[in-house]
Amino acid sequence: MKALFLPAVAILNRVRYTTKFLLIGIITALVCVLLVAQIYSEGSAFVENARLEKDGLVVLEDMMGALGLMQQHRGMTAGLKGGDSSLAAKVQAKADALDQAMAKVDASMAGPGAAFGLQARWTAIKADWAPLKAGRPEGRHENFAAHTALVSKTLALMEAVANASHLSADPDVSAANLIRVLVSDAPEMTERLGRLRGYGTGIVARGMMTAEEHDVLIAHLAQLDLTKTNIVTRLERATEASPDLKPLLDGAIGDVNAGYEQLDTLARQDLLGGAFSIKPAEFFDVGTKAIAGIVHHLDATIRPTLRARIDARTDRASTRLTGLIVLSAVAACVVIYLMTGMYYSIVGSVHELTEGAERLASGDYTSRVEFSARDELAEVADRFNAMSASLRTIIGQVKQTAAELSTAAARMTKSASEVASGSERQSESATSMAAAIEQMTVGIDEISRNAVAAADRSKASGALASEGGDVVRKSVAEMERIADSVNATATVIRDLGEQSGRISTMVSSISEIAEQTNLLALNAAIEAARAGESGRGFAVVADEVRKLAERTAQATHEITDMVEAIQTGTDKAVVTMESGVEQVRLGVDLTIRAGQSMDEINDGASSVVEFVADISHSLREQSSASTEIAQNVEAIAQMAESNSAAVRGTANTAAELERMANTLRDEVSRFRV
């Protein structure tokens, strides 16, 4: 964040406070002027807009009067063209009144409405009025259409006046709804009433109505109802936004509804019903009354209310503008006053600091900076006073130190002579010590050589012990493999004995089968003998079976004998193998203990080697230390000689130091502490 202000800091650091405050004042003044100008511009635009709205109301008021006369002239002309000659004088009177109303519009368009730039359109409307005033065109429908076109142009011009005078863009909700009633809805309502009045007057004057006229009349009534609803809705919205208008606008809403309902009822009952009992002038007067009620409230209620609201808003805007300008001027004066006071405050503070700094520069450290402000510069003044106190203390100490330094320099001169004498004696003692240490170094070197020889012999013994240990470990491994082989053989022989036992069992089973077979053969021979000649062949077979059973019994007996012999030998082999395994196990244990003994011998030899190596290393270090001591003693001797020379120079330096101490005491004596 600080880097953002570096350019401004760099600029302000190069100018004096007068320039700084002048620059800030100019910028502040420019900002104030711009703000005031903006406020004045917006306020003036608001006031000017209100003035245009009021000018638009003036022009619209005159145009509304002319519009009403146009509509009345259209209705009377329609009655006259329909056959009611009694309306001729009234038509001419309305034409004269319309001329006068147009003259008033001319004046307002040339005066308040001159800024709207709509004179050309008004001139065109007046040109369209000229033939209508003379009664052209002659046809009733054509004349009525020409009047309607003239009224439509006037309504469009009124809308243009509302736009040019900014009435259409009024920000007040209530005023905006009243303006729409004044500019659009009410003129449209009067136009539709005027059309219905003129159309109905012509029908009544003829005493008949075609089907087309019947449909047109129904359309007029429907459009009139929609327009009336729009007026009532906008007036109600205005009262909702501004409840204070309710007493005024409720009467207007009631009159609009009453006038519309009277004309609507008359048109539906007398015209659409086909009675045609009313006279044309009476029907015209009912329509005129409805229109007059609307125009009355435009002139007596809506237009004055709009003008009053615009005037009140203009007054508030003017008051607000004046207040803002005065407030801006007061704020500018306060800023100028405060900035001027700030300038004098800072310049005064800087002057006080300058005076205090000048007293300190002159050597007066007994004074303090008297500072009247209590801002950040007060901290600077406090630091000046703290610095002055610190310097006062330091200078007092310097004075005291200068005196003590002079005394110490005299004592130093005396001590230097004594040190020189002691340095000479020290040099002689150091030379004798160096010779003694040289002899001790020679003895240590001889001991170190013997220790190296002992270390070599110890290493050889350790190597032999290590080799013996390896041999014993190999023997142990071989003995363990032999023991494993013997165990495996004993296991195999034991399994052989078990197999022999199973063979013996199987042989017993075969022997029993052979005996049973022999018995069966004997029984078969007996049965064959009983059978006589027919059983001779069977007897031969039985005899062969008996002989086979006898040989089988003999073979099984021999097998039994052999199996028993094998089992006996197997048992003896198993016992012998187990004894051998036990002897191998004892040999393995003895070999393992021998290996452990060889390991202990090897460890002892390694320890001896380490001890001898430590002794040798210590002797080497002692030899190096003795050599270094001898060198240091030699250096001490040389230093003692140099020290003796330096001490003699120190005596001279002490004398010079005493002179400088006196000079320092004279210099600091000018400071007041």
TrEMBL record:
Cellular component terms (Gene Ontology): membrane
Annotated keywords: Membrane, Transducer, Transmembrane, Transmembrane helix
Entry annotated with the keyword Phosphoprotein: no
Protein's cellular compartments: Membrane
Biological process, per Gene Ontology: chemotaxis; signal transduction
Pfam families: HAMP (PF00672), MCPsignal (PF00015)
Domain Methyl-accepting transducer: 401-637
Ranges that cross the membrane: 21-40, 321-339
Stored SUPFAM superfamilies: Methyl-accepting chemotaxis protein (MCP) signaling domain (SSF58104)
Tagged with keyword Repressor: no
Domain HAMP span(s) in chain numbering: 344-396
Homology family: Belongs to the methyl-accepting chemotaxis (MCP) protein family.
The protein's name in its UniProt record: Methyl-accepting chemotaxis protein
Native species: Nitrogeniibacter mangrovi
